[in-house]
Amino acid sequence: MSLVAFVLVLGLALCVERIIYLTLSEINTKKLLADIEKKVEANDVEGAKSICRDTRGPVASVCYQGLLHMNESAEDIERSIISYGSLLTARLERGCSWIKLCIAVAPSLGFLGTVIGMVMAFDQIQAEGDISPTIVAEGMKVALITTIFGIIVALILQVFYNFVNTRIDRLTMQMEEGAINLMDIIAKHKTSNA
User: Fold this and answer.
1) Which of 58, 67, 107, 169 has the fewest CB within 10 Å, making it most exposed?
2) Is residue 146 within 8 Å of residue 124, measured between CB atoms?
3) C-alpha distances in angstroms, 163 versus 127, 152, 157?
4) Per-residue pLDDT of the chain (194 residues; tens, 9 = 90+)
5) Separation CA 176–CA 168 (nearest Å)
6) pTM for the complete prediction?
């Protein structure tokens, strides 16, 4: 039971850390892009970069990466944004594999408790030389409680993991939307200055 409880605490700690990180990474993407567009239209690319540097989160980082390569070809800008976006997505997903491990380990530890409980029951039967319900009950109780607790821990962690994945997907979509809109801003700026 103590191992299953440890897995629960560890899994919840990882989930809470990811939720806090992802919550702090979210911004108003439309406002950021509108501010960048105003600066770029005014030929203040450094001001647009400054807005991105002063804004937290992966969307601003992707936009900053695009602005750094603004004078290059569209393909080079896109390649740079995609490469950097992949790096940022990996940062968003950091720790999720450990949460999945906790989800997988919890029921296994519960089943291990089941086996231990059954062994206890058979030891008690052997020691008493009798198969009365009171002798077997304690071992069976340990077996069932650990199994139930392991499954409950896995279910709780699965709910949190799905919530974290939803936040990651939303941030990834915002990064993609920001990158597409930034490419449009840069293309419009290049055509107006050509």
Assistant:
1) 169
2) no
3) 49, 17, 10
4) 788 899 999 999 999 999 999 999 999 999 999 999 999 889 888 999 999 999 999 999 999 999 998 888 889 989 999 999 999 999 999 999 999 999 999 999 888 888 887 787 777 777 777 777 776 777 677 778 888 999 999 999 999 999 999 999 999 999 999 999 999 998 888 888 76
5) 12
6) 0.82
